[in-house]
């Protein structure tokens, strides 16, 4: 069975600090996809990234970077030089090829960036 | 206009009332989903549909029913609402060929059951 764990319920950082959001997953599939979504205070869900299980290359997009390590079943998300606009709830999610690609979410990490 | 539209956006109702949340999409996706979000619990899947004739239960389908009226429309019903169904509800769509699980969400429907 699949599981996504985001152990950090809430994190507060001061603006311009770097912050890493942890995500650990469990799956028996060899083919799966990992996602990060952002939910700002306005409530909508914003897609950030998708990574498939065969691609362990880290990815950088501006101030955002993702570290995928199959050996530790982790898909961590780092924000560099955080800004107040980064304040949001961040969800990590997993979809399994055998599970019809339905998305299972972690419980989310609430990030507050203090000016 | 949003690609995935939910109505109503906010609703307050009383225990025992029947409630319907509606979702329509212009993305042309076959797959549609209903999730509910509760504080500290993330998003949990209620029902999903892969096409008009295919409806499937998710993790927490008890107390809910759905109807896929057309490719573009997927509605969620609470036949007799109860207070613990107070939550934020999201409709979503996906394209399994291009998206491999990526979901496109509506803006959410906040339901309060008194």
Labels describing this entry:
heterodimer; A: about 120 residues; mainly beta; six-stranded mixed β-sheet; four-stranded antiparallel β-sheet; 12 strands; B: about 110 residues; seven-stranded mixed β-sheet
Describe the model:
Chain A is 0% helix and 54% strand. The N and C termini of chain A lie far apart (41 Å). With 114 residues, chain B is mainly β. In chain B, the strands form 2 sheets. In chain B, strands 2, 4, 5, 6, 9, 10 and 11 form a 7-stranded mixed beta sheet that branches. In chain B, strand 4 and strand 5 form a beta hairpin. In chain B, 36% of the residues are buried. The model of chain B has no long low-confidence stretch (mean pLDDT 92). Chains A and B meet through strand 6 and strand 11 of A and strand 5, strand 9 and strand 10 of B.
Largest sheet of chain A: 6 strands, mixed
Assess the beta-strand content of chain B as a share of residues. over 45%
Coarse morphology of chain B:
globular
Beta-strand share of residues of chain A = over 45%
Number of helices of chain B: 0
Taking the alpha carbons of the first and last residues of chain B, their distance comes to: 32 Å
Instruction: Please work out how many helical segments of chain A DSSP would assign.
Output: 0
Rg of chain B computed from alpha carbons, rounded to a whole number of angstroms:
13 Å
- Residue share in helix of chain B: under 10%
Describe the structure in brief.
The complex is a heterodimer of chains A (115) and B (114). Chain A is 0% helix and 54% strand.
